[in-house]
Amino acid sequence: MSTAALASRKGGPRTEGSAVDTDHRGSPLVLRGVTKAYGDQRVVAGIDLTLRRGECFTLLGPNGAGKTTTLRCALGLTAPGGGTIRLAGLPVPERAREARMRVGIVPQIDNLDPDFTCAENLMVYGRYFGLRDAEIAARIPELLAFAGLEGRHEARIQTLSGGMKRRLTLARALVNRPELLVLDEPTTGLDPQARHLIWDRLKQLIRSGTTVLLTTHFMDEAERLSDRLAILDGGRILTEGAPRELIATHIEPQVVEVYGDWNEGSSALGVETWAARHAAALSQRHEVSGETAFCYVTHPAPLLAHLATQHGLRYLHRPANLEDVFLKLTGRELRD
Amino acid sequence: MTLGHWHPPQLSLRFVPVWRRHFLVWRKLALPSVLGNLADPVIYLFGLGFGIGALLPEIAGVPYITFLAAGMVCYSTMNSASFESLYSSFSRMHVQRTWEAIMNTPLELDDVLVGELVWSASKALLAGSAILLVVTAIGFTETRYALWVIPVIVLVGLAFAALGLVITALAPSYDFFMYYFTLFVTPMTLMSGVFFPVEQLPAALQTLTALLPLTHAVALVRPLLLGTIPGDILVHTAVLLAYIVIPFWLATALTRRRLLK
Q: For a tag site, which of A223, A298, B67, B154 has the least CB within 10 Å?
Protein backbone atom coordinates (compact mmCIF):
# COMPACT_ATOMS: atom_id res chain seq x y z
CA MET A 1 0.00 0.00 0.00
CA SER A 2 1.44 3.34 -0.94
CA THR A 3 1.30 6.12 1.60
CA ALA A 4 1.85 8.67 -1.13
CA ALA A 5 -1.62 7.81 -2.34
CA LEU A 6 -3.08 8.68 1.05
CA ALA A 7 -1.53 12.07 1.42
CA SER A 8 -1.70 15.12 -0.74
CA ARG A 9 -0.48 14.82 -4.28
CA LYS A 10 0.63 18.43 -4.20
CA GLY A 11 3.40 17.99 -1.64
CA GLY A 12 5.23 15.23 -3.48
CA PRO A 13 7.50 12.77 -1.72
CA ARG A 14 10.34 14.24 0.25
CA THR A 15 13.75 12.71 -0.34
CA GLU A 16 16.21 11.89 2.40
CA GLY A 17 17.91 15.00 3.69
CA SER A 18 16.25 17.32 1.22
CA ALA A 19 15.18 20.56 2.78
CA VAL A 20 11.53 21.29 3.24
CA ASP A 21 10.12 24.16 1.24
CA THR A 22 11.19 27.36 2.94
CA ASP A 23 9.18 29.61 0.64
CA HIS A 24 6.68 31.17 3.03
CA ARG A 25 4.30 32.18 0.29
CA GLY A 26 3.47 28.50 -0.18
CA SER A 27 3.20 27.92 3.55
CA PRO A 28 0.26 25.77 4.64
CA LEU A 29 -0.22 27.93 7.73
CA VAL A 30 0.96 31.40 8.71
CA LEU A 31 0.00 33.08 12.00
CA ARG A 32 0.94 36.71 12.66
CA GLY A 33 0.38 38.27 16.05
CA VAL A 34 -2.59 36.05 16.83
CA THR A 35 -4.31 36.76 20.14
CA LYS A 36 -7.37 35.40 21.89
CA ALA A 37 -8.82 36.39 25.24
CA TYR A 38 -11.74 35.11 27.29
CA GLY A 39 -12.81 38.05 29.41
CA ASP A 40 -9.65 39.29 31.12
CA GLN A 41 -7.77 36.09 30.51
CA ARG A 42 -5.36 36.19 27.54
CA VAL A 43 -5.17 32.58 26.39
CA VAL A 44 -3.20 33.34 23.24
CA ALA A 45 -0.97 36.37 23.68
CA GLY A 46 0.55 37.08 20.28
CA ILE A 47 1.64 34.01 18.32
CA ASP A 48 3.77 34.15 15.16
CA LEU A 49 4.24 30.95 13.28
CA THR A 50 5.10 29.92 9.74
CA LEU A 51 4.85 26.28 8.76
CA ARG A 52 7.13 25.03 6.00
CA ARG A 53 5.62 22.76 3.44
CA GLY A 54 6.42 19.12 4.19
CA GLU A 55 7.65 19.55 7.74
CA CYS A 56 6.35 18.23 11.01
CA PHE A 57 5.90 21.10 13.45
CA THR A 58 4.99 20.61 17.10
CA LEU A 59 3.44 22.97 19.60
CA LEU A 60 4.78 21.74 22.90
CA GLY A 61 3.42 23.17 26.11
CA PRO A 62 2.00 22.41 29.54
CA ASN A 63 -1.76 22.16 30.06
CA GLY A 64 -3.39 25.54 29.60
CA ALA A 65 -0.49 26.94 27.54
CA GLY A 66 -2.87 27.89 24.72
CA LYS A 67 -2.08 25.05 22.30
CA THR A 68 -5.65 24.00 21.54
CA THR A 69 -6.93 27.59 21.36
CA THR A 70 -4.15 28.44 18.90
CA LEU A 71 -5.25 25.50 16.73
CA ARG A 72 -8.92 26.50 16.96
CA CYS A 73 -8.04 30.00 15.76
CA ALA A 74 -5.83 28.63 12.98
CA LEU A 75 -8.63 26.37 11.71
CA GLY A 76 -11.29 29.06 11.81
CA LEU A 77 -13.26 27.36 14.59
CA THR A 78 -13.15 30.48 16.71
CA ALA A 79 -12.45 34.09 15.81
CA PRO A 80 -9.10 35.41 17.06
CA GLY A 81 -9.06 38.65 19.05
CA GLY A 82 -6.34 40.05 16.80
CA GLY A 83 -3.69 39.17 14.25
CA THR A 84 -3.85 37.57 10.82
CA ILE A 85 -4.08 33.93 9.81
CA ARG A 86 -3.59 32.27 6.44
CA LEU A 87 -4.49 28.60 6.17
CA ALA A 88 -3.73 26.83 2.88
CA GLY A 89 -3.10 30.28 1.42
CA LEU A 90 -6.55 31.63 2.38
CA PRO A 91 -7.43 34.25 4.99
CA VAL A 92 -9.02 32.85 8.16
CA PRO A 93 -11.67 33.13 9.52
CA GLU A 94 -13.10 34.76 6.36
CA ARG A 95 -12.44 31.80 4.06
CA ALA A 96 -11.85 29.10 6.66
CA ARG A 97 -14.45 26.82 5.16
CA GLU A 98 -12.66 26.63 1.80
CA ALA A 99 -9.28 26.34 3.53
CA ARG A 100 -10.47 23.33 5.56
CA MET A 101 -11.16 21.58 2.25
CA ARG A 102 -7.40 20.97 2.13
CA VAL A 103 -6.82 20.20 5.80
CA GLY A 104 -7.28 17.03 7.85
CA ILE A 105 -8.06 17.36 11.56
CA VAL A 106 -7.60 14.82 14.35
CA PRO A 107 -9.32 16.20 17.46
CA GLN A 108 -8.15 15.68 21.02
CA ILE A 109 -11.29 13.80 22.05
CA ASP A 110 -12.56 11.02 19.78
CA ASN A 111 -15.77 11.93 18.01
CA LEU A 112 -16.31 8.96 15.75
CA ASP A 113 -19.97 8.19 15.11
CA PRO A 114 -20.88 5.42 17.58
CA ASP A 115 -23.91 4.36 15.53
CA PHE A 116 -21.82 3.56 12.47
CA THR A 117 -19.38 0.90 11.36
CA CYS A 118 -15.78 1.80 10.48
CA ALA A 119 -16.59 2.05 6.78
CA GLU A 120 -19.73 4.14 7.39
CA ASN A 121 -17.73 6.57 9.51
CA LEU A 122 -15.37 7.18 6.59
CA MET A 123 -18.20 7.41 4.05
CA VAL A 124 -20.24 9.91 6.05
CA TYR A 125 -17.18 12.04 6.80
CA GLY A 126 -16.13 12.07 3.15
CA ARG A 127 -19.57 13.41 2.19
CA TYR A 128 -18.96 16.48 4.37
CA PHE A 129 -16.15 17.34 1.93
CA GLY A 130 -18.54 17.07 -1.00
CA LEU A 131 -16.89 13.86 -2.23
CA ARG A 132 -18.99 11.47 -4.29
CA ASP A 133 -19.97 8.15 -2.69
CA ALA A 134 -18.16 6.09 -5.34
CA GLU A 135 -14.99 8.10 -4.82
CA ILE A 136 -15.10 7.57 -1.05
CA ALA A 137 -16.03 3.89 -1.35
CA ALA A 138 -12.99 3.32 -3.57
CA ARG A 139 -10.77 4.91 -0.94
CA ILE A 140 -12.14 3.13 2.14
CA PRO A 141 -10.02 -0.08 1.80
CA GLU A 142 -6.73 1.84 1.67
CA LEU A 143 -7.75 4.11 4.55
CA LEU A 144 -8.71 1.11 6.71
CA ALA A 145 -5.44 -0.62 5.75
CA PHE A 146 -3.52 2.51 6.78
CA ALA A 147 -5.32 2.41 10.14
CA GLY A 148 -4.42 -1.26 10.56
CA LEU A 149 -8.12 -2.11 10.42
CA GLU A 150 -8.14 -4.31 7.31
CA GLY A 151 -11.27 -6.39 7.05
CA ARG A 152 -13.02 -4.40 9.77
CA HIS A 153 -15.36 -2.56 7.40
CA GLU A 154 -18.39 -3.74 9.30
CA ALA A 155 -16.95 -3.47 12.82
CA ARG A 156 -18.93 -1.22 15.17
CA ILE A 157 -17.06 1.60 16.87
CA GLN A 158 -17.87 0.30 20.37
CA THR A 159 -15.94 -2.90 19.60
CA LEU A 160 -12.68 -1.03 18.82
CA SER A 161 -9.89 -0.44 21.35
CA GLY A 162 -8.70 3.10 22.16
CA GLY A 163 -5.74 2.72 19.81
CA MET A 164 -7.95 1.48 16.96
CA LYS A 165 -10.33 4.42 17.41
CA ARG A 166 -7.42 6.87 17.25
CA ARG A 167 -6.13 5.22 14.09
CA LEU A 168 -9.56 5.31 12.51
CA THR A 169 -9.84 8.99 13.44
CA LEU A 170 -6.47 9.55 11.76
CA ALA A 171 -7.59 7.67 8.65
CA ARG A 172 -10.83 9.69 8.64
CA ALA A 173 -8.79 12.91 8.59
CA LEU A 174 -7.10 11.70 5.39
CA VAL A 175 -10.31 11.10 3.44
CA ASN A 176 -9.87 14.41 1.54
CA ARG A 177 -6.13 13.89 0.83
CA PRO A 178 -5.14 16.88 2.97
CA GLU A 179 -2.00 18.95 2.37
CA LEU A 180 -1.88 19.77 6.04
CA LEU A 181 -2.73 17.37 8.85
CA VAL A 182 -3.49 18.92 12.25
CA LEU A 183 -3.46 16.70 15.33
CA ASP A 184 -4.37 17.87 18.83
CA GLU A 185 -2.64 15.62 21.36
CA PRO A 186 -2.85 12.56 19.13
CA THR A 187 -1.55 9.98 21.62
CA THR A 188 -2.90 11.22 24.95
CA GLY A 189 -4.48 8.29 26.79
CA LEU A 190 -2.95 5.56 24.62
CA ASP A 191 -0.75 2.70 25.81
CA PRO A 192 2.90 2.56 24.59
CA GLN A 193 2.17 0.04 21.84
CA ALA A 194 -0.67 2.14 20.45
CA ARG A 195 1.46 5.32 20.62
CA HIS A 196 4.27 3.72 18.63
CA LEU A 197 1.83 2.62 15.96
CA ILE A 198 0.44 6.18 15.65
CA TRP A 199 3.98 7.61 15.44
CA ASP A 200 4.83 5.07 12.78
CA ARG A 201 1.83 6.14 10.69
CA LEU A 202 2.60 9.82 11.15
CA LYS A 203 6.19 9.27 10.01
CA GLN A 204 4.87 7.53 6.89
CA LEU A 205 2.70 10.54 6.14
CA ILE A 206 5.52 13.01 6.73
CA ARG A 207 7.80 11.01 4.43
CA SER A 208 5.16 11.10 1.74
CA GLY A 209 5.07 14.92 1.83
CA THR A 210 2.14 15.80 4.10
CA THR A 211 2.76 18.79 6.33
CA VAL A 212 1.93 17.89 9.93
CA LEU A 213 1.12 20.23 12.79
CA LEU A 214 0.63 18.64 16.18
CA THR A 215 0.26 19.63 19.79
CA THR A 216 1.56 17.53 22.62
CA HIS A 217 2.92 17.64 26.12
CA PHE A 218 4.98 14.50 25.58
CA MET A 219 8.66 15.30 25.07
CA ASP A 220 9.50 12.01 23.41
CA GLU A 221 6.69 12.53 20.92
CA ALA A 222 7.89 16.03 20.06
CA GLU A 223 11.52 14.94 19.83
CA ARG A 224 10.82 11.87 17.69
CA LEU A 225 8.45 13.37 15.19
CA SER A 226 9.15 17.03 14.69
CA ASP A 227 11.50 18.80 12.34
CA ARG A 228 10.83 21.94 14.34
CA LEU A 229 8.91 22.72 17.47
CA ALA A 230 7.78 25.69 19.47
CA ILE A 231 7.56 25.67 23.25
CA LEU A 232 4.43 27.48 24.35
CA ASP A 233 3.50 28.83 27.73
CA GLY A 234 1.09 31.52 28.85
CA GLY A 235 -0.14 31.87 25.27
CA ARG A 236 3.30 32.83 23.92
CA ILE A 237 6.02 31.02 22.02
CA LEU A 238 9.03 30.91 24.35
CA THR A 239 11.37 29.43 21.80
CA GLU A 240 11.26 27.73 18.43
CA GLY A 241 13.62 25.51 16.43
CA ALA A 242 14.75 21.96 15.70
CA PRO A 243 14.77 19.75 18.82
CA ARG A 244 18.58 19.28 18.83
CA GLU A 245 19.10 22.96 18.15
CA LEU A 246 16.93 23.93 21.12
CA ILE A 247 18.84 21.61 23.43
CA ALA A 248 22.16 23.03 22.20
CA THR A 249 20.98 26.64 22.51
CA HIS A 250 19.22 26.56 25.83
CA ILE A 251 20.98 24.06 27.98
CA GLU A 252 24.33 22.53 28.94
CA PRO A 253 24.86 19.26 27.04
CA GLN A 254 24.98 16.88 30.04
CA VAL A 255 22.84 16.36 33.09
CA VAL A 256 23.68 14.63 36.34
CA GLU A 257 20.66 13.88 38.51
CA VAL A 258 21.74 13.44 42.12
CA TYR A 259 19.50 11.77 44.70
CA GLY A 260 19.64 9.58 47.82
CA ASP A 261 20.88 10.42 51.34
CA TRP A 262 23.97 12.46 51.87
CA ASN A 263 25.96 11.57 55.01
CA GLU A 264 28.81 13.74 56.20
CA GLY A 265 30.58 12.28 59.16
CA SER A 266 27.88 10.91 61.44
CA SER A 267 25.12 13.30 60.44
CA ALA A 268 22.55 12.37 57.79
CA LEU A 269 21.89 15.38 55.55
CA GLY A 270 19.69 15.57 52.50
CA VAL A 271 20.39 16.17 48.84
CA GLU A 272 19.37 19.74 49.35
CA THR A 273 22.23 20.36 51.76
CA TRP A 274 24.69 18.63 49.44
CA ALA A 275 23.52 20.84 46.56
CA ALA A 276 23.83 24.00 48.65
CA ARG A 277 27.40 23.15 49.57
CA HIS A 278 28.81 21.58 46.39
CA ALA A 279 26.58 21.85 43.33
CA ALA A 280 27.43 25.42 42.41
CA ALA A 281 31.17 24.70 42.38
CA LEU A 282 30.87 21.49 40.37
CA SER A 283 28.20 22.40 37.76
CA GLN A 284 27.32 25.44 35.64
CA ARG A 285 23.76 25.41 36.83
CA HIS A 286 21.69 23.32 39.20
CA GLU A 287 18.10 23.02 40.39
CA VAL A 288 16.67 21.08 43.28
CA SER A 289 13.26 19.60 42.72
CA GLY A 290 11.85 17.44 45.48
CA GLU A 291 14.46 14.85 46.44
CA THR A 292 16.60 15.32 43.32
CA ALA A 293 19.29 17.83 42.37
CA PHE A 294 19.62 18.41 38.63
CA CYS A 295 23.17 19.50 37.74
CA TYR A 296 23.73 20.84 34.23
CA VAL A 297 27.33 20.52 33.06
CA THR A 298 29.56 20.72 30.00
CA HIS A 299 32.46 18.82 31.62
CA PRO A 300 31.05 16.29 34.07
CA ALA A 301 34.37 14.66 35.20
CA PRO A 302 34.98 16.73 38.39
CA LEU A 303 31.35 16.32 39.51
CA LEU A 304 31.37 12.56 38.86
CA ALA A 305 34.71 12.15 40.69
CA HIS A 306 33.28 14.00 43.68
CA LEU A 307 30.10 11.94 43.68
CA ALA A 308 32.09 8.69 43.63
CA THR A 309 33.45 9.57 47.08
CA GLN A 310 30.15 10.55 48.67
CA HIS A 311 28.40 7.83 50.66
CA GLY A 312 24.68 7.45 50.33
CA LEU A 313 24.32 9.67 47.25
CA ARG A 314 23.32 8.09 43.98
CA TYR A 315 23.25 9.69 40.57
CA LEU A 316 22.15 9.34 36.96
CA HIS A 317 24.37 10.80 34.25
CA ARG A 318 22.64 11.41 30.91
CA PRO A 319 22.70 13.73 27.88
CA ALA A 320 20.44 16.79 28.11
CA ASN A 321 17.06 16.37 26.45
CA LEU A 322 14.04 18.36 25.44
CA GLU A 323 12.42 17.93 28.84
CA ASP A 324 15.33 19.81 30.42
CA VAL A 325 14.81 22.69 28.00
CA PHE A 326 11.07 22.58 28.59
CA LEU A 327 11.38 22.63 32.37
CA LYS A 328 14.00 25.37 32.24
CA LEU A 329 11.71 27.57 30.16
CA THR A 330 8.33 26.76 31.71
CA GLY A 331 9.38 26.09 35.30
CA ARG A 332 8.76 23.11 37.52
CA GLU A 333 5.61 24.17 39.29
CA LEU A 334 2.51 22.07 38.80
CA ARG A 335 -0.08 23.09 36.17
CA ASP A 336 -3.71 22.25 36.80
CA MET B 1 -22.72 37.75 23.75
CA THR B 2 -21.13 39.84 21.04
CA LEU B 3 -23.05 41.28 18.13
CA GLY B 4 -20.97 39.00 15.91
CA HIS B 5 -23.13 36.04 16.87
CA TRP B 6 -26.34 37.72 15.72
CA HIS B 7 -25.89 37.81 11.97
CA PRO B 8 -28.62 35.85 10.15
CA PRO B 9 -28.25 32.08 9.82
CA GLN B 10 -26.47 31.14 6.61
CA LEU B 11 -28.87 28.99 4.63
CA SER B 12 -27.29 26.70 2.06
CA LEU B 13 -27.63 23.22 0.64
CA ARG B 14 -24.47 22.26 2.48
CA PHE B 15 -26.76 20.81 5.16
CA VAL B 16 -27.59 17.84 2.90
CA PRO B 17 -24.68 15.59 3.98
CA VAL B 18 -25.59 16.34 7.62
CA TRP B 19 -29.21 15.34 6.94
CA ARG B 20 -28.01 12.18 5.22
CA ARG B 21 -25.91 11.30 8.28
CA HIS B 22 -28.96 11.52 10.54
CA PHE B 23 -31.03 9.58 8.03
CA LEU B 24 -28.45 6.77 7.96
CA VAL B 25 -28.57 6.49 11.76
CA TRP B 26 -32.38 6.54 11.73
CA ARG B 27 -32.55 3.85 9.06
CA LYS B 28 -30.75 1.46 11.39
CA LEU B 29 -33.39 2.00 14.06
CA ALA B 30 -36.34 2.76 11.80
CA LEU B 31 -38.83 0.13 12.92
CA PRO B 32 -38.90 0.90 16.66
CA SER B 33 -38.77 4.59 15.81
CA VAL B 34 -41.82 4.50 13.53
CA LEU B 35 -43.74 2.29 15.95
CA GLY B 36 -42.89 4.67 18.78
CA ASN B 37 -44.02 7.64 16.76
CA LEU B 38 -47.32 6.02 15.93
CA ALA B 39 -48.15 4.22 19.13
CA ASP B 40 -48.38 7.18 21.49
CA PRO B 41 -50.79 9.37 19.52
CA VAL B 42 -52.85 6.39 18.33
CA ILE B 43 -53.32 5.23 21.93
CA TYR B 44 -54.42 8.73 22.91
CA LEU B 45 -56.73 8.93 19.91
CA PHE B 46 -58.52 5.66 20.60
CA GLY B 47 -58.32 5.85 24.38
CA LEU B 48 -59.70 9.35 24.65
CA GLY B 49 -61.67 9.27 21.40
CA PHE B 50 -63.75 6.22 22.28
CA GLY B 51 -63.49 6.37 26.06
CA ILE B 52 -64.33 10.01 26.71
CA GLY B 53 -66.03 10.33 23.34
CA ALA B 54 -68.74 7.87 24.46
CA LEU B 55 -69.65 10.22 27.31
CA LEU B 56 -69.78 13.34 25.19
CA PRO B 57 -72.28 14.78 22.79
CA GLU B 58 -70.97 15.83 19.41
CA ILE B 59 -68.38 18.61 19.46
CA ALA B 60 -68.59 21.26 16.75
CA GLY B 61 -71.07 19.01 14.98
CA VAL B 62 -68.83 15.93 14.80
CA PRO B 63 -68.12 12.89 17.04
CA TYR B 64 -65.38 13.52 19.61
CA ILE B 65 -62.92 11.13 17.94
CA THR B 66 -63.22 13.06 14.67
CA PHE B 67 -62.64 16.30 16.57
CA LEU B 68 -59.64 14.77 18.31
CA ALA B 69 -58.07 13.42 15.08
CA ALA B 70 -56.80 16.86 13.97
CA GLY B 71 -55.42 17.52 17.44
CA MET B 72 -53.54 14.26 17.41
CA VAL B 73 -51.96 15.02 14.00
CA CYS B 74 -50.59 18.30 15.41
CA TYR B 75 -49.64 16.79 18.76
CA SER B 76 -47.73 13.96 17.12
CA THR B 77 -45.89 16.37 14.80
CA MET B 78 -44.96 18.65 17.69
CA ASN B 79 -43.72 15.81 19.88
CA SER B 80 -41.61 14.26 17.19
CA ALA B 81 -39.92 17.56 16.24
CA SER B 82 -39.38 18.43 19.90
CA PHE B 83 -37.82 15.14 20.98
CA GLU B 84 -35.48 15.11 18.01
CA SER B 85 -34.32 18.72 18.36
CA LEU B 86 -33.91 18.39 22.12
CA TYR B 87 -32.64 14.96 23.18
CA SER B 88 -31.17 13.78 19.89
CA SER B 89 -29.59 17.09 18.90
CA PHE B 90 -28.16 17.49 22.39
CA SER B 91 -26.60 14.02 22.16
CA ARG B 92 -25.01 14.93 18.86
CA MET B 93 -23.80 18.30 20.12
CA HIS B 94 -22.69 17.53 23.65
CA VAL B 95 -22.32 13.81 24.24
CA GLN B 96 -21.09 12.34 20.95
CA ARG B 97 -19.43 15.55 19.72
CA THR B 98 -20.77 14.83 16.25
CA TRP B 99 -21.16 18.56 15.53
CA GLU B 100 -17.51 19.13 16.39
CA ALA B 101 -16.47 16.44 13.92
CA ILE B 102 -18.62 18.04 11.21
CA MET B 103 -17.20 21.50 11.90
CA ASN B 104 -13.70 20.14 11.32
CA THR B 105 -14.67 19.69 7.67
CA PRO B 106 -15.65 22.38 5.14
CA LEU B 107 -19.01 22.75 6.92
CA GLU B 108 -19.88 25.34 9.52
CA LEU B 109 -22.05 25.49 12.58
CA ASP B 110 -24.85 27.11 10.57
CA ASP B 111 -24.84 24.16 8.17
CA VAL B 112 -25.03 21.78 11.14
CA LEU B 113 -28.00 23.70 12.57
CA VAL B 114 -29.90 23.81 9.28
CA GLY B 115 -29.27 20.06 9.09
CA GLU B 116 -30.71 19.59 12.59
CA LEU B 117 -33.72 21.80 11.81
CA VAL B 118 -34.59 20.06 8.55
CA TRP B 119 -33.92 16.61 9.98
CA SER B 120 -36.16 17.17 13.02
CA ALA B 121 -38.86 18.52 10.71
CA SER B 122 -38.43 15.48 8.47
CA LYS B 123 -39.04 13.12 11.36
CA ALA B 124 -42.02 15.24 12.39
CA LEU B 125 -43.37 15.04 8.84
CA LEU B 126 -43.18 11.27 9.04
CA ALA B 127 -44.87 11.19 12.46
CA GLY B 128 -47.62 13.65 11.51
CA SER B 129 -48.28 11.95 8.17
CA ALA B 130 -48.48 8.54 9.83
CA ILE B 131 -51.32 9.74 12.09
CA LEU B 132 -52.92 11.50 9.15
CA LEU B 133 -52.86 8.23 7.26
CA VAL B 134 -54.37 6.32 10.19
CA VAL B 135 -57.25 8.77 10.75
CA THR B 136 -58.07 9.05 7.05
CA ALA B 137 -57.79 5.29 6.49
CA ILE B 138 -60.18 4.57 9.35
CA GLY B 139 -62.52 7.19 7.97
CA PHE B 140 -62.59 9.62 10.88
CA THR B 141 -62.08 12.52 8.52
CA GLU B 142 -63.19 14.06 5.27
CA THR B 143 -60.58 13.32 2.60
CA ARG B 144 -61.38 16.34 0.38
CA TYR B 145 -58.66 18.65 1.77
CA ALA B 146 -56.68 16.04 3.70
CA LEU B 147 -53.55 16.38 1.54
CA TRP B 148 -53.39 20.09 2.40
CA VAL B 149 -52.59 19.03 5.95
CA ILE B 150 -49.13 17.93 4.80
CA PRO B 151 -47.71 21.44 4.19
CA VAL B 152 -49.10 22.44 7.60
CA ILE B 153 -47.31 19.48 9.18
CA VAL B 154 -44.08 20.69 7.55
CA LEU B 155 -44.52 24.18 9.05
CA VAL B 156 -45.39 22.80 12.48
CA GLY B 157 -42.39 20.46 12.36
CA LEU B 158 -40.03 23.28 11.45
CA ALA B 159 -41.46 25.56 14.15
CA PHE B 160 -41.08 23.04 16.99
CA ALA B 161 -37.65 21.98 15.69
CA ALA B 162 -36.53 25.63 15.82
CA LEU B 163 -37.95 26.09 19.33
CA GLY B 164 -36.27 22.87 20.47
CA LEU B 165 -32.91 24.05 19.14
CA VAL B 166 -33.17 27.22 21.26
CA ILE B 167 -33.58 25.09 24.39
CA THR B 168 -30.78 22.75 23.30
CA ALA B 169 -28.46 25.73 22.84
CA LEU B 170 -29.06 26.65 26.50
CA ALA B 171 -29.17 23.16 28.03
CA PRO B 172 -26.44 22.12 30.45
CA SER B 173 -27.77 18.53 30.54
CA TYR B 174 -30.73 16.37 29.52
CA ASP B 175 -32.59 17.25 32.73
CA PHE B 176 -33.06 20.79 31.48
CA PHE B 177 -35.55 19.57 28.84
CA MET B 178 -37.99 18.59 31.56
CA TYR B 179 -38.59 22.30 32.26
CA TYR B 180 -39.43 22.88 28.61
CA PHE B 181 -41.96 20.05 28.59
CA THR B 182 -43.62 20.75 31.93
CA LEU B 183 -43.64 24.53 31.66
CA PHE B 184 -44.30 24.97 27.96
CA VAL B 185 -45.25 21.90 25.94
CA THR B 186 -47.74 20.29 28.32
CA PRO B 187 -49.73 23.45 29.22
CA MET B 188 -49.72 24.46 25.57
CA THR B 189 -51.07 21.07 24.52
CA LEU B 190 -53.98 21.51 26.92
CA MET B 191 -54.67 25.11 25.87
CA SER B 192 -54.34 24.95 22.09
CA GLY B 193 -57.49 23.12 21.09
CA VAL B 194 -55.94 19.67 20.79
CA PHE B 195 -58.34 17.97 23.26
CA PHE B 196 -61.18 20.51 23.51
CA PRO B 197 -62.16 23.75 21.76
CA VAL B 198 -60.19 26.82 22.80
CA GLU B 199 -63.54 28.55 23.42
CA GLN B 200 -63.92 26.46 26.61
CA LEU B 201 -61.11 28.47 28.21
CA PRO B 202 -61.60 31.72 30.16
CA ALA B 203 -61.27 34.81 27.92
CA ALA B 204 -57.94 35.87 29.46
CA LEU B 205 -56.41 32.49 28.73
CA GLN B 206 -57.74 32.60 25.18
CA THR B 207 -55.62 35.71 24.50
CA LEU B 208 -52.55 33.83 25.69
CA THR B 209 -53.57 30.83 23.64
CA ALA B 210 -53.64 32.95 20.50
CA LEU B 211 -49.91 33.50 20.88
CA LEU B 212 -49.02 29.81 20.94
CA PRO B 213 -47.87 28.00 17.79
CA LEU B 214 -49.88 24.85 18.44
CA THR B 215 -53.15 26.85 18.47
CA HIS B 216 -52.51 28.01 14.93
CA ALA B 217 -51.53 24.53 13.81
CA VAL B 218 -54.80 23.10 15.14
CA ALA B 219 -56.76 26.03 13.64
CA LEU B 220 -55.50 25.02 10.19
CA VAL B 221 -55.57 21.24 10.45
CA ARG B 222 -59.01 20.77 12.07
CA PRO B 223 -61.09 22.45 9.34
CA LEU B 224 -59.04 20.73 6.64
CA LEU B 225 -59.80 17.35 8.18
CA LEU B 226 -63.49 18.23 8.49
CA GLY B 227 -63.57 19.03 4.79
CA THR B 228 -63.78 22.83 5.03
CA ILE B 229 -61.37 25.65 4.20
CA PRO B 230 -59.86 27.20 7.36
CA GLY B 231 -60.50 30.87 8.14
CA ASP B 232 -57.62 33.32 8.55
CA ILE B 233 -55.21 31.06 6.66
CA LEU B 234 -52.74 33.91 6.21
CA VAL B 235 -52.68 34.81 9.89
CA HIS B 236 -52.15 31.22 11.04
CA THR B 237 -49.48 30.62 8.42
CA ALA B 238 -47.71 33.88 9.27
CA VAL B 239 -47.61 32.99 12.98
CA LEU B 240 -46.18 29.55 12.20
CA LEU B 241 -43.57 31.12 9.90
CA ALA B 242 -42.62 33.57 12.62
CA TYR B 243 -42.19 30.61 14.99
CA ILE B 244 -39.72 29.15 12.50
CA VAL B 245 -37.69 32.25 11.63
CA ILE B 246 -37.31 33.94 15.02
CA PRO B 247 -36.47 30.87 17.14
CA PHE B 248 -34.10 29.52 14.50
CA TRP B 249 -32.26 32.81 14.35
CA LEU B 250 -32.10 32.87 18.16
CA ALA B 251 -30.97 29.22 18.32
CA THR B 252 -28.23 29.95 15.79
CA ALA B 253 -26.94 32.96 17.74
CA LEU B 254 -27.06 31.11 21.08
CA THR B 255 -25.31 28.04 19.69
CA ARG B 256 -22.62 30.19 18.07
CA ARG B 257 -22.05 31.76 21.47
CA ARG B 258 -21.84 28.33 23.06
CA LEU B 259 -19.59 26.56 20.56
CA LEU B 260 -17.56 29.14 18.63
CA LYS B 261 -15.98 30.77 21.62
A: A298
> Would the pLDDT of A310 be above 90?
no
Share the mean pLDDT of chain A: 90
The torsion of the CA quartet A83, A86, A92, A97, rounded to 10 degrees, works out to -170
Rounded to a whole number of angstroms, the distance from the CA of B260 to the nearest CA of chain A is 5
Residues A70 and A96 in one domain: yes
Domain hosting residue A244, numbered range: 24-248
Residue A70 belongs to a domain with what CATH number?
Answer: 3.40.50.300
Question: In terms of domains, do A231 and A259 share one?
Answer: no
pLDDT of amino acid A24? 56
Of residues B74 and A26, the one with the higher pLDDT is B74
Of the partner residues B97, B107, B260, the one whose CB lies closest to the CB of residue A128: B107
Could you tell me the CA-to-CA distances from B221 to A193, A287, B79, B213, B227 in Å, in that order?
63, 80, 16, 13, 10
pLDDT at A21: 45
- Phi, psi values for residue A288, rounded to 5°: -110, 125
Checking DSSP bridges between strand A211-216 and strand A56-60, what pairing results, if any?
parallel
Question: Do A137 and A238 share a domain, yes or no?
Answer: yes
Burial-class residue B211 by CB neighbours within 10 Å (0-12, 13-18, 19+).
exposed
Residues of chain B with pLDDT under 70: 1-3
Q: Which residues of chain B neighbour A112 with C-beta distances below 8 Å? A: 101
**Residue A16: inside a domain, yes or no?**
no
Distance (Å, rounded) from C-alpha A261 to C-alpha A225?
38
Paired with A295 in beta bridges are: A256, A286
For the segment A86-112, what is each residue's pLDDT rounded down to a tens digit?
A: 999 999 999 999 999 999 999 999 999
